[in-house]
Design brief:
Strand content: 15-25%
CATH class of the largest domain: Alpha Beta
Number of strands: 7
Helix content: 25-40%
Structural class: alpha+beta
Largest sheet: 4 strands, antiparallel
CATH architecture of the largest domain: 2-Layer Sandwich
Distance between the termini: 50 Å
Oligomer: single chain
Order of helices and strands: HEEHHEEHEEE
Shape: elongated
Length: 134
């Protein structure tokens, strides 16, 4: 009979070898302030990079910043003046809550609906966890 350490080593040797890629980071939002209106110029690109729907990300930002806004032609328009740092900070919260896997830290996730609950499912490790306020 083999010891636990021998069995563990054998199991680890059989796992597929993967290269660890660099840490996943969201690109910088291109923010422009004109009067009392803030525009995120590369909003469509940010959403595509996160693999999330523009409307759900916009809805989250409206709620977090407590302002009305709209999405048009891949740009996010917010009523009010917000610095690039404020937008980046809120987008970081979104990424942490709705994009990155809490277990493995990879962005390979999808939001699926199980019954009436929205779940964040990781395609890399298979973990599922509930998310609120999608």
């Amino acid at each position: 009979m083999q010891s636990y350490e021998e069995l563990l080593k054998r199991a680890l040797d059989r796992l597929p070898k993967t290269e660890e890629k660099g840490r996943w980071e969201l690109p910088e939002p291109a923010v422009q302030i004109a009067g009392k209106r803030t525009t995120v110029k590369n909003f469509a690109d940010l959403c595509k990079y996160m693999r999330r729907d523009q409307n759900s990300v916009a809805k989250y930002l409206y709620r977090e910043l407590a302002v009305p806004g709209s999405v048009d032609k891949g740009q996010l328009f917010l009523q009010g003046k917000f610095s690039a740092d404020a937008i980046r900070k809120r987008m970081g919260y979104y990424v942490k809550e709705f994009v990155l896997c809490a277990e493995c830290g990879k962005p390979d996730t999808d939001i699926v609906k199980v019954g009436r609950i929205h779940m964040l499912k990781c395609q890399a490790c298979g973990v599922m966890r509930s998310v609120e306020g999608k």
